[in-house]
Specification:
This protein has 369 residues and is α/β, with parallel strands linked by helices. It folds into three domains: 133 residues, Response regulator (Rossmann fold, 3-Layer(aba) Sandwich), CATH 3.40.50.2300; 161 residues, Alpha-Beta Plaits; 46 residues, no CATH class. The strands form three sheets. The protein has a five-stranded parallel beta sheet with strand order 2-1-3-4-5, with helices on both faces. A five-stranded mixed beta sheet has the order 7-8-6-11-12, sandwiched between helices. It starts with 9 loop residues before the first strand and ends with a helix.
């Protein structure tokens, strides 16, 4: 007779600086939930980043190190969708509850309850939100469209770019790929809340889609990030287009409490010339590297890298960090194939020593097994 299988327990993270509350919460959820405990927002954030199996978070608001509002902001602006989609229930006894509730919901709280808690109600909410999230994640796995903007999502973009790169490599043609991100999005999120931030994301998505050519592809690939592929486009033409995107976004007339909010994007450009070849992951890595450099220059900035630029930098980096001892360790571990790409650089570094060898020593090197 087959043993009965039980569904996995719902994994719940309880964040509260009160030891008594943590103990009470553990008892409240009992053996039917898998309960993790954190002493404050900072501790909770560390756990959330390390444990991707957490299905729901209960957090207090008033805590040392990092309070509940700061934790909400970190979760909702995280680039990892497995984190930014976690249901977060604020469970607090904070003073001025109505003001706290409005701020919590503005920052993306899923629900808000006040102490003392009803055990049955708490467990019912936990199950409902966890089940809804699971169903939503399954649905997202099956789709290639971003529900907020109507653009492709990261999965859809990767699939499309893979087809375009195959064409480009086969026909020795050019392509330009851009990585776009709303500048200082976390600060913007805190100032205008979740609803306002989502409105900005939609607006930026519209601008990008309206600016590109018909044959280009635009996708929303992270919370405040977008990607664009432009088959057959040359780098210099793409830079003009990227500059126009920056100017259009910067001309937005968004206001908060009567004051203008500055909204800008930074853009990293990867130019793949006809003589270059590369796969999707390398091209996206180059575009992201260029974006990081653009953002380091300030707001509304552009930075372009070619595949040749990227490969030269990687070669220099390998040369600087190359350790002969580390190569020998790889050989001892049976990883000879991982050593081959570094042989030319290793020989170049050893050349001054090889020149000093006597004929007898050179013969010993040649006959070494």
């Amino acid at each position: 007779m087959l043993a009965k299988t039980h569904p996995p327990k719902i994994r719940v993270l309880i964040i509260d600086d009160s030891r008594l509350i943590r103990i009470a919460a553990s008892r409240m959820f009992g053996d039917s939930f898998d309960v993790l405990l954190a002493v404050d927002g900072s501790d909770g954030w560390d756990i959330i980043q390390k444990d991707k199996d957490i299905q729901i978070v209960f957090t207090d608001l008033v805590m040392p190190e990092m309070d509940g509002f700061e934790l909400l902001e970190k979760i909702r602006t995280c680039k990892d969708e497995a984190i930014n989609s976690i249901p977060v229930i604020v469970a607090t006894g904070a003073d001025n509850t109505e003001v706290a509730k409005q701020k919590a919901f503005a920052l993306g709280a899923t629900d808000f309850i006040t102490k003392p808690f009803d055990a049955t109600d708490i467990k019912t909410r936990a199950r409902s939100y966890a089940q809804f999230r699971q169903a939503n994640m399954v649905l997202k796995e099956q789709t290639t469209i971003d529900s907020m903007t109507g653009l492709l999502n990261a999965k859809g973009f990767h699939r499309q770019l893979d087809k375009e790169m195959a064409f480009i490599n086969r026909h020795k043609s050019s392509i330009t790929v851009m990585s776009v991100e709303i500048d200082s999005f976390k600060d913007l999120f805190i100032r205008i809340g979740r609803a306002g931030a989502e409105a900005i994301i939609k607006k930026v998505g519209d601008v990008l889609a309206e600016t590109v050519r018909r044959e280009d592809t635009v996708a929303r690939t992270s919370v405040a990030g977008f990607a664009i592929s432009m088959p057959l486009a040359r780098g210099e033409n793409a830079l003009e287009l990227a500059n126009r995107m920056c100017q259009t976004v910067e001309s937005f007339r968004a206001k908060l409490d009567g004051k203008k909010i500055t909204i800008t994007v930074s853009i990293g450009v990867c130019a793949v010339e006809p003589s270059s070849t590369g796969d999707v992951d390398i091209v996206l890595d180059v575009a992201d590297t260029a974006l990081t450099r653009a953002a380091s220059l300030g707001r509304s900035q552009l930075y372009q890298m070619t595949l040749q630029d990227y490969h030269r930098e990687q070669a220099l980096l390998r040369r600087k960090t190359l350790s002969i001892d580390s190569l020998l360790e790889r050989i001892k571990s049976g990883e000879q194939n991982n050593v081959v790409p570094y042989l030319d650089t290793a020989l170049e570094r050893l050349a001054p020593l090889l020149v000093l060898l006597s004929n007898e020593q050179k013969q010993r090197v040649i006959t070494y097994r």
